[in-house]
Design goal:
Among the domains are: 53 residues, no CATH class; 79 residues. The protein is rod-shaped. It has seven helices and three strands, in the order E-E-E-H-H-H-H-H-H-H. Strand 1 and strand 2 form a beta hairpin. Helices cover 48% and strands 10% of the residues. It has a three-stranded antiparallel beta sheet with strand order 1-2-3, with helices on one face. It is mostly helical.
């Protein structure tokens, strides 16, 4: 007993081959699936016969696989996954705390810049730079935040964060003291024992060199 039924139908005013197999309907506009170079609109009767022969030989229509389109991953999701990875790797509590802070800061950044749900696909170095370079963050803070952000996105965008160049922190050059006597007097008032130890060290140093 046949488990299929084949007929000629129409779709958008054009003939097509319709096969019912296991109560499922399959529609064909050409014979590509059975190795026949023929369109149904050119000769539907001949194409139906070709399908009939292939069905008798054991060919069976395959159920089409439904492709599930995955939503693109967002930067927030990537950062959260990065934190989870670092927790599993046994990173320090201090780093994990800083990493979670990065997620909060980035969420706030997206809200401020009106770029909510920014995807990794659309993430650009300009986003990273705008996130790091802020008027209320010193150059040192910017580099510290960058060093925490980078490993969180390393799996997804390994070179993007590192491509953002930041200014190096400027070192403060301290001027030499001119009022040595006043400073020593202040130390003496604060702690007589400390000034005594200081002069003893200076005396021993002088004796050793002489």
């Amino acid at each position: 007993m046949k488990s299929y039924r084949i007929s000629i139908g129409t779709s958008k005013s054009k003939p097509i081959i319709i096969i019912y197999f296991n109560n499922l309907r399959h529609r064909y506009w050409n014979g590509k699936v059975i190795g026949v170079d023929l369109k149904s609109e050119d000769n539907p009767t001949l194409l139906k016969a070709a399908f009939e022969l292939r069905l008798r030989d054991g060919w069976r229509p395959q159920k089409k696989k439904t492709k599930i389109k995955q939503a693109p991953i967002t930067v927030i999701e990537a950062l959260q996954k990065g934190v989870e990875v670092k927790i599993k790797q046994g990173c320090s509590e201090r780093f994990i705390k800083d990493a979670k802070r990065i997620v909060t800061l980035w969420r706030r950044y997206e809200s401020e810049q009106q770029v909510k749900n920014l995807t990794l696909k659309d993430l650009q170095s300009s986003h990273i730079r705008n996130f790091l370079v802020r008027p209320n963050w010193s150059a040192k803070t910017q580099r510290t935040v960058k060093s925490t952000l980078s490993p969180l996105l390393n799996e997804f965008k390994p070179h993007l964060v590192q491509s953002v160049k930041l200014k190096k922190p400027t070192s403060t050059l301290h001027k030499p003291f001119d009022n040595i006597n006043e400073i020593l007097e202040a130390i003496k008032v604060y702690n007589k024992q400390l000034i005594s130890m200081l002069f003893n060290d200076l005396w021993l140093s002088f004796k050793t060199s002489s």
